[in-house]
Amino acid sequence: MNLSKSIGGDRVIWAIIALMMIASFLSVYSASANLAFVYGKVTVGSLLFKHATHLIIGLAILFLTHLVPLRYIAGLSVFGVILAIGLLALTLSMGTEIDGANASRWLIVPGVGVSIQTSALAALALLIYLPRCLSKRQRNEWTMKNSWVIYVPLAIILALIFPANFSTAVLLYVSCALVLFVGGYPAKYIAAISGGLVLMATLFILTVSVMPSMSNRVDTWKARIESFTSGEKAVNYQVEKARMAISNGMVVGKGPGKSAQKNFLPQSNSDFIYAIIVEEYGFVGGLTVMAFYLFLWIRIMRISLRSSSFFGSLAAFAVGFSLIFQAFINMAVAVNLVPVTGQTLPLLSAGGSSIWVTCIALGIVLRVSQESKPSDEPLVEQENTAVA
Known about the structure:
The protein is mainly alpha-helical. It has one domain. Helix content is 67%, strand content 3%. Helix 6 (118-136) runs parallel beside helix 14 (353-370).
């Protein structure tokens, strides 16, 4: 089989993915020194091999996803939302800690030992499900009565994510609200849903304040916000080390593998890998990473505007915006523009499920580009053929 003929969709996006994965391989190798030191028996080589395995599996997932027709992707989103709700509920019920770490974000696959972050899967499923709902009622009027197909799954998923992962819930809702707005859903209903969700979140926080045993996360959220606003170095340890790394980078950086802060910065190969990249490759390297994400967003928007179906256009926009939004939030945390969120840097950070979910999302974008018209013809409303 000729591999080049089997690879469809936007070749520029394929190239961006390949380049960023190569950059990830180099950066993760350098930034893993801290983990090797903390865990003792774990070597940098074993961590690099693990990351390489995750990337190879991710590429396989990316390739397989881009072969699936959009009508099947749309139909599978319903099943994905139902499965996501079940997995989130199961994850939340597993307890609060495993070996001192927050366990209500992760689910261990029995017999395999692989951990998956179920909130990432749920976010992707929801961001594909909403375009499906909007495309099926594209020519019909929305009311609060028939909007239950939107706000019920949305509220359930956010309610299951929120107690364990505040930042993910907020970022997901911002993405969903924008998708609803772009998809023509009435702004007054978006405002009503937003108000309801804010009320739910407020009641949860007040309840936990009275009964702290329900969750240990509210104190963490409070501490992060307070450390961000106060700027106290003792409290803001991660961000302080990240800022030191960025400061050390200067214009062209200290050179590959020569980061000093990687030995002290927690999560240096995942949540704070951007700081290590800037320390080693300087201001130029940091701007290059930003440019890659911006260029990826431009290509995704180009695909979205050229899509021959309403569902494809909105789905590409939804997953594309979510990825780029997450990337810039991650970089903003590293330079102390926003409080610590725990979000990874897509395609560059180490991780298993985060890499694989990103590859599924980009596979969907590539499938949209493959089914798009080759010319600059305007959007054609063909949701009945594109949506199961």
